[in-house]
Design brief:
heterodimer, A: 251 residues, alpha/beta, Rossmann fold, 2 domains, six-stranded mixed beta sheet, four-stranded antiparallel beta sheet, 10 strands, globular, B: 293 residues, mainly alpha, 73% helix
């Protein structure tokens, strides 16, 4: 089974080492957790995987494909999608259009056909809109289809971002604090969706502060502190690990 | 009839100016901070004019050659500029405009230097210019609604998001450069055969500010915006004759007023107001804040 793997990855910004010698695997069809206190380097891990920043050392691979240092769009075309910790929607567009853009990776119409407005371009536009509508339905967001993205509540904006990532039909999905600011009911609804996505074969990396939420969903949990992996294992193993307790509660 | 004919030069000026403004518009739509339209227009105009005066190439082919050359220059420019962002891109393209002006001034034995090229035949008719603007507007309307417009919009609003969805910013900026340059080059070529004469400074910083000014004034979302903006720039000095001497002062004051009071530009601001004034449809969601647990 393929996995998205980090092999001994280090990322330094000037003199600051945000991630040090990190190795972890995100297997397909599973939800893998990544937790750690603020500033542990979790978001940097996502940025390194997705090509927003290149790693200083180490390798990032998907199956046999080496993604180390690949551009962000090339990584996305390899089937790695993400959401952002600070929600990034296209504010000048409707909710539906924000989801439709996620399908861009599957565009089959050539530039020329698009420029000329050939029938294939319009067919594809209609198909993407229909698929986006279906996603909206699944997330119970249909009534917001025409609303401007930035007029939505925080929780709904998170859902839009997630639908956009799912629209890319990723093999791996990196969720950077997807339930931050949500209440327990909303979080549980999303948790159920993550489970179905994993059952569909998507490998999910779940970054969260809500430790209970992660423990509930993830088969394997990795714990980072100050850029290093300090523990990994099942929820039980991790929660008993003295290094983890110290990182979270202080010595 | 005579009255109508006497207005045709204004229509011509609005159409050619709209060509430059639409060239600027498509660059901005793609989140490309190119101010190079004036330089591409110069390439198109000089190529068309020199092809005829130096080599006797038929004007149709000259204009076509100018368009192709400008497009090629745009694609070429996109290679180094793909590494730059925002205002750095803008500065580089302003330099490009100035370089083109300098080249036209310097190689005077070939380009006619500061005096430019005179005695060009006036072959391009008003209806052809109207057709040109209509064709560009139609092209942009198609772009806006298909995959290219989708990608342009994503890049313009957040290029990190665009890239994280697999959109190649380099590829789409290359396309935007090609479109912007090709349209400006074509407008320049048409201008050369519409006004008897071209000279280097006509395609300098002044044209650059007019092109970007027309987009700011008219609006940068709707394709009508740059056309309305250009029309105002062309007609205003005529309507306010006593101020015609100070028309750049007038332009400046107008731009400041529009940026202050209609920040989306005239066309887009009016559209938004009309949309906002429309009564909400039945059952339209008024998304409320998620209630706290």
């Amino acid at each position: 089974m393929t996995a998205l793997a980090l092999d001994d990855v280090t990322k330094s910004f000037g003199g600051v080492t945000a991630v040090a010698n990190l190795s972890l695997a995100i297997p397909a069809g599973r939800i893998t957790g990544l937790i750690g206190p603020n500033g542990a380097g979790k978001t940097t891990v996502v940025n390194v995987i997705t090509g927003i920043v290149p790693p200083t050392a180490g390798r990032v691979t998907v199956g046999e494909h080496d993604l180390t240092g690949a551009s962000a769009d090339a990584v996305a075309r390899r089937g790695v999608a993400r959401t952002f910790q600070n929600i990034r929607l296209l504010h000048d567009a409707s909710v539906l259009d924000n989801v439709v853009i996620g399908f861009h990776r599957h565009e089959a119409t050539s530039l020329v056909a698009n420029l000329c407005g050939l029938p294939s371009a319009w067919r594809e536009r209609a198909a993407f809109r229909a698929r986006a509508q279906a996603l909206l339905e699944r997330f119970e967001m249909t009534r917001f289809a025409d609303a401007r993205a930035d007029s939505l509540s925080y929780g709904h904006q998170r859902r839009v971002e997630m639908m956009r990532a799912i629209a890319t039909a990723p093999e791996f999905l990196l969720l950077d604090e997807p339930v931050a600011g949500m209440n327990q009911v909303e979080a549980d609804e999303l948790g159920a969706i993550f489970r179905t996505l994993a059952e569909d074969g998507i490998g999910i990396l779940l970054i969260e502060h809500n430790v209970g939420f992660v423990m509930d969903l993830c088969a394997t949990i990795h714990v980072m502190n100050t850029g290093r992996l300090i523990a990994h294992g099942t929820a039980d193993e991790v929660s008993r690990d003295p290094a983890v307790i110290e990182a979270y509660l202080g010595s | 009839m005579d009255l109508i004919l006497s207005y045709l030069p204004y229509v011509d000026a609005i159409c050619i100016g709209s060509g430059y403004a639409l060239s600027q518009f498509i660059a901005l739509r793609a989140g490309l901070f190119s101010l190079g339209s004036a330089g591409f227009a110069s390439l198109g105009a000089y190529t068309a004019a020199l092809a005829l005066t130096r080599y006797g190439v038929a004007p149709v082919w000259g204009v076509l050659m100018g368009t192709v050359l400008a497009t090629a220059a745009g694609v070429l420019m996109s290679v180094p500029l793909a590494r730059l962002r925002g205002h750095f891109q803008a500065i580089a393209t302003v330099a490009f405009v100035e370089i083109i002006v300098s080249l036209a001034l310097h190689f005077d034995h070939f380009t006619g230097g500061p005096a430019g090229i005179n005695g060009l035949p006036k072959l391009v008719q008003t209806w052809e210019l109207v057709l040109f603007v209509a064709a560009v507007a139609a092209l942009f309307a198609v772009i806006e609604r298909t995959g290219i417009g989708r990608a342009f919009g994503a890049i313009r609003q957040d290029d990190i998001v665009a890239r994280s969805l697999g959109i190649s910013v380099i590829r789409y900026h290359r396309l935007a450069f090609a479109l912007s340059a090709g349209i400006a080059g074509l407008a320049g070529g048409l201008a050369a055969f519409n006004s008897y004469t071209i000279e280097p400074q006509q395609f300098g910083f002044g044209l650059l500010t007019l092109a970007i000014g027309a987009v700011i004034l008219g609006g940068r979302s709707s394709v009508l915006g740059p056309i309305v903006g250009t029309a105002i720039f062309v007609l205003l000095p005529e309507l306010a004759r006593p101020l015609a001497e100070n028309r750049f002062l007038l332009h400046g004051a107008l731009l400041i007023a529009v940026i202050t009071f209609l920040p989306q530009g005239i066309v887009d601001s009016l559209r938004r107001r009309r949309a906002a004034a429309r009564p909400a449809r039945d059952g339209e969601p008024q998304p409320a804040r998620t209630p706290a647990a």
